[in-house]
Amino acid sequence: MKYAFIRAYEAAFPVRQMCRTLGVSPSGYYGWRGRPPSPRAVANRGLLAEIRRVHTATRGAYGARKIWRQLRAEGIPCGRHRVARLRRLYGIEALRRRRFTVTTRARQGAGTPPDRVQRGFI
Fold this sequence. Notes:
Blueprint: H1 2-8, H2 15-22, H3 26-34, H4 39-57, H5 64-73, H6 80-89
Helix pairs in contact: 4-5, 5-6
């Protein structure tokens, strides 16, 4: 996160000053900038694409456990906690269904009330 911050504000502030303020070494920052992404990061990107595909295919109804089961059924090796972590990290949430609530209750044994106004229906 610190290195990403330094990269974002590289044009506005001197790199050495930002490194000193954030408590990191300039050589560490430049090493990070030139380093290719790790195999795990590349695999996470691919898995994230699959998670998004399953999420949209199920219209956002599946949570981490069902997405994990779906991916395993398709032959994509992954762990349940890894799927949950990537979903949480990228803000992929399942739609929550509203519960059905009873708003009116029928009275037991109550028939039609007597016509006390004498309206005289036609």
